[in-house]
Specification:
The structure holds two protein chains of two kinds.
Chain A lengths: L2 E5 L2 E3 L5 E8 L7 E7 L5 E7 L9 E2 L7 E6 L4 E6 L8 E13 L2 E9 L3 E5 L2
Parallel strand pairs in A: 2-11
Antiparallel strand pairs in A: 1-3, 3-8, 4-5, 4-9, 5-6, 7-8, 9-10, 9-11
Chain B lengths: L3 E4 L2 E4 L5 E7 L8 E6 L6 E5 L3 E2 L7 E6 L2 E6 L9 E8 L2 E4 L3 E5 L1
Parallel strand pairs in B: 2-11
Antiparallel strand pairs in B: 1-3, 3-8, 4-5, 4-9, 5-6, 7-8, 9-10, 9-11
The chains are: A mainly beta, B mainly beta.
């Protein structure tokens, strides 16, 4: 069974850092990109960023709201992805999800979609 | 950044009825990169539709997607009790991914 489990959330004061982990199992981690999303309480979904599998040789991509503060990385040997969150702001308070990016062929074009999600880990930024 | 606007915000329907959800983009979106997600209360989102009209694995055929350019639609032909949830459209382009604000489908 494919599983993703987020961990590392908690309560942190503004300006501090936190590192989230996305521990996976049940699929070949090295073959897949991983995306991070967040959802503030009672709000909609927001994309945080993504990291593609190593063969693509491209850097991670980030939403404008977190670029320069958040860093996504991966450890293929342990099937884990990370979200390093620095200079946290109160508006970063949210439930953070990671997802597997599955490969889907759309009319001959390769596309990637968040097809398996974890259950999320809550991050609260507050003094 | 492409803004996706979903309407209506809330749709009140009865089981067995047809639901039509709209997603309008602020500029043209590649249909290859337009998808829909379902989120039930207390659960993580689930991929429903990718590439505008392709159902993800295990998604029943009462769900269908259509559209092009700036206007996209998710249709649920006959609502089942488990379909009452929030639905989000999503697009990816120019290394940016955005979601619409969501449509809540509630029981009338």
């Amino acid at each position: 069974e494919v599983q993703l489990v987020e961990s590392g959330g908690g309560l942190v004061p503004p300006g501090r850092s936190l590192r989230l982990s996305c521990t996976t199992s049940g699929f070949n981690f090295a073959d897949h990109g991983i995306s991070w999303f967040r959802q503030a309480p009672e709000k909609g979904l927001q994309w945080v960023g993504l990291i593609k599998s190593k063969p693509y040789g491209v850097p991670p991509e980030y939403a404008a709201s977190v670029k320069g503060r958040f860093i996504i990385s991966r450890d293929d040997s342990k099937s884990v992805a990370f979200l390093q969150m620095n200079s946290l702001k109160t508006e970063d308070t949210a439930l953070y999800y990671c997802s597997r990016d599955g490969y889907y062929d759309v009319s001959g074009y390769p596309t990637f979609w968040a097809d398996i999600w974890g259950q999320g880990t809550m991050v609260i930024v507050s003094s | 950044e492409i803004v996706l606007t979903q309407s209506p915000g809330t749709l009140s329907l009865s089981p067995g009825e047809r639901a039509t959800l709209s997603c309008r983009a602020s500029q043209s979106v590649s249909s290859t990169y337009l998808g829909w997600f379902q989120q039930r209360p207390g659960q993580a989102p689930r991929l429903l539709i990718y590439g505008t009209s392709n159902r993800a694995t295990g998604i029943p055929d009462r769900f269908s997607g259509s559209g092009s350019g700036t206007d996209f639609t998710l249709t649920i032909s006959r609502l089942e009790p488990e379909d009452f949830a929030v639905y989000y459209c999503q697009q990816y382009g120019n290394s940016r991914l955005t979601f619409g604000g969501g449509t809540k489908v509630e029981i009338k």
